[in-house]
Automatic annotation (TrEMBL):
One of its GO terms (molecular function) is GTPase activity. This is GTP binding protein 3, mitochondrial. GO terms for cellular component: mitochondrion. It comes from the Eukaryota. PROSITE patterns: G_TRME (PS51709). HAMAP family: GTPase_MnmE. Residues 151-322 form the TrmE-type G domain. Gene3D superfamilies: P-loop containing nucleotide triphosphate hydrolases, Probable tRNA modification gtpase trme, domain 1, tRNA modification GTPase MnmE domain 2. Pfam families: MMR_HSR1, MnmE_helical, TrmE_N. Keywords: GTP-binding, Hydrolase, Nucleotide-binding, tRNA processing.
């Protein structure tokens, strides 16, 4: 593949050989004997493509995510990022900032010569404000892209013996956690990665929530509370036989499971009434009817023993995941990494300070635009001073 049209931009050649390990080993050995040849470092081809300007940093990250994608929705999101849509969005913002900065710098340098059109600074202020709104909107996406990339954290919580570990084992289809009739069996958090409807989920089983004198179990309960604080979705599990079928029972039951403050992040919750097989005939309907009234959370009656009702829990959970992660192919591309969030937040901070400085000291204000642009550049991997000069000379006929 002749450069510059190859993946790395350099001249490349590719050998197609039979796939057996001995054949590949023999070819690599023969190549190793040629002077100047060495094995590539991990990621070296992508790094060379980046250095040759073939890929931006966000595209490189998309490529990495694509290689590691485990579910369909993750694959689609990574592919979209790799194809450059996210990079283009940040690039457009960066160009708008560059333009605003060029205008401010031109104003600082040349306004006294009366060479500039009227209202330059007002136009810059308006452009900065529009940009601020766009960046803020992009940041307030409910972390859907990051959730899809890293997995949605679903936490199973509830009193001891409700069947939490049984539910984990049933959903991940393997005996990941110990199940026993002894209350307080689970102490550590047991995690399992799942694919539910194409969405990645990290499902955690936790210790039953109760007051206890046992030091080890107390640590388990404290870990369970900690997980609850960081949960994206909570499956609150109760034994159906322990819930009285009366109006308001759902709120009472939830309060018993999730003590005040347990859900600081207000993660959506699905109430799971387990052990439906132990209910007397007709009591399940009465229970659901009573729970359904003024329900704050969806309720699901199931039995881990018979498997009845599990499909409806999965469909409730699937709908919740879809709402949280969205369809990665529609709408504007999602923010996928904490790194991007960090730089975008810093960028927004600088844009805010621009407004504060602009009527006090234009030089300081311009510096904030430069910082904002540098934060965007850190995301895309493109930062250049030349661009500003180009715009100064393209937009203004100064220095004639
Ligand atoms: N009849 C019936 N028994 C169940 C069901 N689900 C779980 N159990 C039983 O209930 C007991 C407790 O189950 P676990 O899954 O260990 O309960 P847990 O909530 O994880 O309990 P801790 O870890 O102690 O907090 C076990 O004996 C299970 O076999 C069910 O749907 N029906
Ligand atoms: Mg358990």
């Amino acid at each position: 593949f002749a450069g510059p049209h190859s993946f790395t931009g350099e001249d490349c050649s590719e050998l197609h050989v039979h796939g057996g390990p001995a054949v590949v080993g023999g070819v690599l050995q023969a190549l190793g004997r040629l002077p100047g040849l060495r094995p590539a470092d991990p990621g070296e081809f992508t790094k060379r493509a980046f250095q040759a300007g073939k890929l931006g940093l966000t595209e490189v990250e998309g490529l990495g995510d694509l290689i590691h994608a485990e579910t369909e929705a993750q694959r689609r999101q990574a592919l979209r990022q790799m194809e450059g849509e996210l990079g283009q969005l940040y690039q457009r913002w960066s160009e708008e900032l560059t333009k605003a900065l060029a205008h401010v710098e031109a104003f600082i340098d040349f306004s006294e010569d009366d060479n500039l059109e009227e209202g330059v600074l007002a136009r810059v202020a308006a452009a900065v404000q529009t940009l601020e709104e766009e960046v803020r909107g992009h940041l307030q996406d409910g972390r859907r892209g990051e959730r899809l990339r890293g997995g949605v954290h679903v936490v199973i919580a509830g009193p001891t013996n409700a069947g939490k570990s049984s539910l984990l084992n049933l959903l991940c289809q393997r005996p990941a956690a110990i199940v026993s009739p002894v209350a307080g069996t689970t102490r550590d958090v047991v995690e399992s990665a799942l694919n539910i409807g194409g969405y990645p989920v990290v499902l955690s089983d936790t210790a039953g929530l109760r007051e206890t004198q046992d030091a080890v179990e107390r640590e388990g309960v404290s870990r369970a509370r900690d997980r609850l604080q960081r949960a994206d979705v909570v499956l609150a599990v109760l034994a159906a036989v322990d819930v009285a079928p009366e109006p308001g029972c759902l709120a009472d039951a939830l309060r018993a499971v999730l003590p005040p403050g347990a859900l600081a992040g207000r993660a959506p919750c699905i109430l799971v009434l387990n052990k439906a097989d132990l209910l007397e005939e007709g009591r399940g309907g009465a229970l659901l009817g009573a729970c359904g009234e003024g329900a704050l959370s969806p309720v699901c009656l199931l039995s881990c023993k018979t498997g009845e009702g599990v499909a409806s829990l999965l469909s409730l959970l699937g709908a919740q995941l879809e709402q949280m992660c969205g369809d990665p192919l529609t709408g504007s591309p999602s923010l996928t990494q904490a790194r991007h969030r960090l730089h975008l937040t810093s960028c927004l901070g600088s844009l805010g300070r621009y407004h504060g400085y602009k009527s006090l000291d234009l030089v300081l204000a311009a510096e904030e635009l430069r910082l904002a642009r540098r934060h965007l550049g850190k995301i895309t991997g493109r930062v250049s001073a030349e661009e500003i000069l180009d715009i100064v000379f393209r937009d203004f006929c100064v220095g004639k």
